[in-house]
Design goal:
binds coenzyme A, Aminopeptidase, 7 strands, about 25% helix, seven-stranded mixed beta sheet
């Protein structure tokens, strides 16, 4: 992979959530030690139904659902927030998380109005730290819940 943030083809697609992929998203699993890092996909899909600003996506590789993510990019704001990202335990460590973030950053950049993307993760979540740092996200410190906030300025 050359420049992660550059425009190129990644081995994943981000697809809207619907009848055709909902069951596959619910069947995705984390490793036991990761379960405190992110809400379950069942909770996230329920949240997405209630939150008009939440945009949920299946991460699809070679025609199979391998992960899930959720973000918001309100029309009256220049900041997008990544709420959730997970890759199935059997599919981790193959570059799919990075590919999903690259695709998501492209999707967000195409909106044209977003200047900053932010993310929160548990400070002990080394995979998340490395993943986001690889795209240039800068850690800003802990929020009131003890989660690390990191953000990325777009188009700077
Ligand atoms: C974080 C997560 C999405 C990464 O997905 P992935 O497909 O395994 O990631 P990739 O293979 O693309 O690797 C991305 C980077 O993370 C690093 N990484 C992946 N798993 C790791 C682990 N267990 N420990 C340390 N680093 C790890 C990789 O080395 C890579 O960094 P590098 O480019 O500097 O080598 C996945 O581990 C996951 O679903 N975790 C549980 C949910 C979670 O924590 N989500 C993030 C919170 S919002």
């Amino acid at each position: 992979m050359t420049s992660r943030a550059g425009m190129r083809e990644y081995p994943v697609a981000l697809e809207p959530v619907g009848k055709g992929n909902r069951a596959a998203i619910l069947a995705l699993e984390l490793l036991p030690q990761q379960q405190g890092f992110v809400a379950s996909n069942a909770e996230s899909l329920a949240e997405a139904r209630q939150d008009d600003e939440a945009i949920a996506r299946a991460v699809v590789a070679a025609g199979r659902v391998v992960g899930f993510l959720m973000y918001s990019a309100p029309e009256d704001d220049d900041e997008a927030i990544i709420y959730r990202l997970m890759i199935d335990r059997r599919e981790q460590g193959k570059g799919l998380g990075s590919a999903a973030v690259a695709k998501l950053l492209e999707e967000i950049a195409r909106l044209g109005r977003i200047r900053r993307v932010s993310i929160c993760y548990e400070p002990e979540n080394e995979a998340a730290r490395r993943l986001y740092a690889g795209f240039g996200f800068v850690e800003r410190g802990l929020d009131e819940d003890g989660e690390m906030i990191a953000d990325l300025e777009l188009g700077g």
